[in-house]
Amino acid sequence: MRFCLVLLAILSIVTAEPSEIGSNDVTLRLRGQKGTYSTLCRKDGSFAISDVAPGAYLFEVSSTDLIYPQLRVEVSGKGQMRISRGEDNTQTIPHPLRITAEGRADYFTPREGFEVMSLLKNPMMLMMGVTLGMTWVVPKIMGSLDEEALEELQGGANRQQLEEPPTWEPPTLRPTITNH
């Protein structure tokens, strides 16, 4: 059963500077299990949502410039309405509803300043640091080795270079195919 009475229409005023409220700037939505109702705010800040079915709804004001609170609206089958702030049902708000903006929406993110630590945490800088460190550490390690260990390392490297590389043949499926 839907009510189309003026008593159940939510007639209210969204307060802000008149220049801040445009007809396409502020959208009002009433969302609940019974459905979603939406309307635009008039230039004078008033709005009306009519033909609201009984039930509990969440009332949201969507604006690109201002932030408004969410309200809980409960419409009874007798045509009575109870409006409370958000999920807190203890603080009721009188009807007609006056919604004031809580603040301005700030979309600007300030640019981060230069930090040496952020530069050092960069993966490319870490790889470069490890490479430079190894070019300094490896000669020090080689210099601290005794002559026998150094000759053994150099001899192993020379033997690997002198040996012929192993020839690689791709595997064949011929024996497995002929056996079956």
From TrEMBL:
<keyword id="KW-0812">Transmembrane</keyword>
<dbReference type="GO" id="GO:0030246">
    <property type="term" value="F:carbohydrate binding"/>
</dbReference>
<keyword id="KW-0732">Signal</keyword>
<comment type="similarity">
    <text>Belongs to the EMC7 family.</text>
</comment>
<dbReference type="InterPro" id="IPR019008">
    <property type="entry name" value="Beta_sandwich_EMC7"/>
</dbReference>
<dbReference type="Pfam" id="PF09430">
    <property type="entry name" value="EMC7_beta-sandw"/>
</dbReference>
<dbReference type="InterPro" id="IPR013784">
    <property type="entry name" value="Carb-bd-like_fold"/>
</dbReference>
<protein>
    <recommendedName>
        <fullName>ER membrane protein complex subunit 7 beta-sandwich domain-containing protein</fullName>
    </recommendedName>
</protein>
<feature type="region of interest" description="Disordered">
    <location>
        <begin position="157"/>
        <end position="180"/>
    </location>
</feature>
<feature type="domain" description="ER membrane protein complex subunit 7 beta-sandwich">
    <location>
        <begin position="25"/>
        <end position="127"/>
    </location>
</feature>
<dbReference type="GO" id="GO:0072546">
    <property type="term" value="C:EMC complex"/>
</dbReference>
<dbReference type="InterPro" id="IPR039163">
    <property type="entry name" value="EMC7"/>
</dbReference>
<keyword id="KW-0472">Membrane</keyword>
<feature type="signal peptide">
    <location>
        <begin position="1"/>
        <end position="16"/>
    </location>
</feature>
<keyword id="KW-1133">Transmembrane helix</keyword>
